[in-house]
Each structure stands twice: as structure tokens, then as C-alpha cells.
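Final report, closing paragraph on structural work. Over the funding period we assembled a curated collection of sequence-structure pairs, and we close with a single example.
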Amino acid sequence: MKITAEPRSDQINFEDFISGSQVFTVAGVRNGTAEQKYDIGLEGEQRVWRPPLTVLRTLIACWGDDATAWQGRQVELYGDPSIRFGKEAVGGIRIKALSHLDEPQTVSVTVARGKRQKITIQPLEQQPVMDWQALLTEAGNDRDKLLSLHQRATSERAPQDVIQAIIQAGQQATQPEQQGGEPA
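Its predicted structure, as stored:
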């Protein structure tokens, strides 16, 4: 059984990447809040990604400033524990790789007032998008297939809502059938 500690938040956070980097497909971009200018929707993820200005500038440098072109592209994100807020290291989300790059892209970003750093974003081979719902439908009420699907979804770091749907289907499959009485 995989133990999860889900934050109560409407956005992905540094803590979501403690177990390693994750690849997401961009579902769309919409206006965000005053603190975070844009909300980036990620396929299969109920929460949004709210990249800070430095990360937005990196996305623009690599993909351009037309957010509609970002839809369907993939990004590999990781948690960087060295990200600071004031004097305290609080951790943050950074880009490791992006699809639709022919070669690594080096971008100069601001890391502190008056201090810049070069970061290199690697090309990401476009990953096929897993249709978890189709696999869940295919498994039906077969406990063995659902167990196998749960193990696969866990190992492939499927979104939490997908894993919950598989668990729920498994629980329904294990409930005893309601008998309506004996036929006459």
C-alpha cells in the first residue's frame, strides 16, 4: 500500500515532488491571482501549477509567449529544496525538461536581487498520455485486474484522483453481491 500525505491546497507544491520528478501534460493556462499571475492546468491533476515569475520566464524563453501553443505539451517538474523565500530555504518547483525542444536550452534567471544564474532545460521526449479511465473501464469488477491497475498507477505516479477511483472500484468489486432471494 502506498502512503500519501496530501496537502489541502488548490495548487501543486514542493512537497508533491519529495519522491522525485514528475511529467505532466499542460491542459491549459488561465489568469491566476495577484500573487501568481497564471494558473497552468495539468491533465489528470485537479490542482493547478502556479509557477513563479522566474519559471514563467523560462517557459516563455523555451516555448514562446502564446499560451494556447503550450496546451498538450509536456513538462517535467522537480522539487528544488534550495529555493528561498527571504532568508529561509522553503523549497520550490522547477523545470527539469520540456517537450518540443530540439536541444537543451540555457536561460539566465534571477535568483536574488541583482544576482542571475544560468539554468539548462533538457529536451523531453513527448510521453504518451495514459488513458487511466479506459484502463479502469476495461478492468471492470475484476479484483485481480483492479489490483494490477492500482500497482501500475502507483508505480507510474498517476494522479491521486485516478488512484482513488481505482481504489473505489476495487472496494465496490469486493462487496458481496446483494441476493434478491431464491428463484421460484
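The mean pLDDT is 84. Residues 14-123 form one domain. We thank the funder for supporting this effort.
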